[in-house]
Amino acid sequence: MPYSKIIGSGGFLPPRVVTNNDLAAELATRNIETSDDWIIERTGIRQRHLADPGVTTSQLATEAARRALLDAGIQAADLDLIIVATSTPDHIFPSTACLVQAALGARGGAAFDVQAVCSGFVYALTTADAFIQAGRARTALVIGAEVFSSILDWNDRGTCVLFGDGAGAVVLRADDQPGILAAKLGADGSQMNILCAAGNVSHGAVVGDPFLRMDGQAVFKLAVTSLTRSANDVCSMAGVRLDDIDWLVPHQANIRIINFLGRRLGVPDERVVVTVDQHANTSAASVPLALDAARHDGRIKAGDLVMMQGVGGGFTWGSVLVRM
Ligand code: UT7
C-alpha cells in the first residue's frame, strides 16, 4: 500500500493586518471594551489578518494552492484530487474545491469540501491519505481555508477577538517511502452547542443565528482532553513514542491550550510550532499555515516526525502523524 508523502506546502494570508490595539480602538467606537493586555494574556494573540469585504475563501485557497504547487514542482493538471476544508465556503454549492479547481485550471479529478470546522484540515488530510492508500488518487491537493471574519459577531468581544482569515495547502503524492504514518479522527456530536454557527438559509432568508457562538471554557477543557488522547492513539498506531516527535503542529486557537497540551504530551516548547500570536485562530487554515511557516523557515525538515492536530466545532478532533 502506498504512503502519502507531503511534497509541497503553501500559505496565504490576506494583507490587511489588524493588531489588538486596532481592534480595541474599533470596538471602543461601539462601547465594547477590550484591550491588547486582555487578549494577549488570555489567548497569546497579538494580531490577525482579515480579508477585505468581497474577498472569498476560494480566492485565499487558490493563492495558497498555487504556492503549494510551485513548492511541490508540479502542475495543476497533475492533480487527481482536491479537498478543501472550510466552514466559510463561497457558496451553498458548488463546493469551494470545485471553484479552486477551476481557478487553477485543473480539470477532471475529484473535488469536494470537508466540513469539520477547526479540525477540517486534519479531516481533509486523513481523507486524502485514505484515497491515496486505496489507490484511488495519486496526487492530491489538501487545503484549509477560511474567511472566518464573515461569521463573527463583531459585537461579541468574547469571540470576535479570537479569529482571523487565511489559507494553507499541502500537496500529497503516493510514494513507497513514508509519508503519513497514522491518523485518527473523532467527534462527539452531543457537544454541538459549545461551538456552533447554528444558522441556515431557507427560501432566501437566514434562519436561526448565522454567527459563531462559543462556550470558551467548555471548548478549552474538551480540546485539551481530546487532543491528549488523540496524540497517544496515533503514536500507538504508528508504534512510535511521544518522545520521538520532532515537531508538534497543533491547531492554533489559544497559546494556553497549546502550552497545556505540550506539557501534557511532554513535548518541549521549542518543538511546538506557534503562529497563533501572528494569525489568531484561522480555523481549518491554522494547521497548514503553521506547517508551511515552519517548513519554509527551515525548522521542519525532510525526515522529521511531525504530529498535526486539529480540534473544534462538532465537537471534532483529530491527529495525523507524518514523516516529512
Ligand atoms: O478552535 C476552537 C476555538 N476556540 C477555542 O479554542 C476557545 C477556547 N477557550 C478560550 O480560549 C478561552 O475560554 C477564552 C479566551 C475564549 C476566554 O478566556 P477565559 O479565561 O475562559 O475568560 P472568560 O470567558 O471566563 O471571561 C473572563 C472575563 C469575563 O468578564 P467577567 O464576567 O469576569 O466580568 C468576560 O466578560 O473576561 C471578559 N471578556 C473580555 N474582556 C476583555 C471576555 N472577552 C473579553 C475581551 N476583552 N475580548
Q: Can you put this structure into words, describing what you see?
A:
It is a single chain. With 324 residues, the chain is an alpha+beta fold. The protein has two domains: 3-175, Thiolase/Chalcone synthase (Peroxisomal Thiolase, Chain A, domain 1); 180-323, Thiolase/Chalcone synthase (Peroxisomal Thiolase, Chain A, domain 1). Helices cover 34% and strands 25% of the residues. It has ten helices and 15 strands. The chain has helices at 20-28, 36-43, 57-72, 96-104, 120-133, 157-160, 216-238, 255-265, 276-279, 286-296; strands at residues 3-12, 17-19, 47-49, 81-85, 110-114, 139-146, 166-175, 180-187, 195-196, 200-202, 205-207, 213-214, 247-250, 305-312, 316-323. A five-stranded mixed β-sheet has the order 1-7-6-4-5, sandwiched between helices. The protein has a four-stranded mixed β-sheet with strand order 8-15-14-13, with helices on both faces. Helix 7 (216-238) packs parallel to helix 8 (255-265). The longest helix is centred in the C-terminal third of the chain and has 23 residues, at 216-238. The protein is globular, with a radius of gyration of 18 Å. The two termini are 18 Å apart. The mean pLDDT is 97. The protein binds oxa(dethia)-CoA. Oxa(dethia)-CoA binds next to helix 2, helix 6 and helix 7.
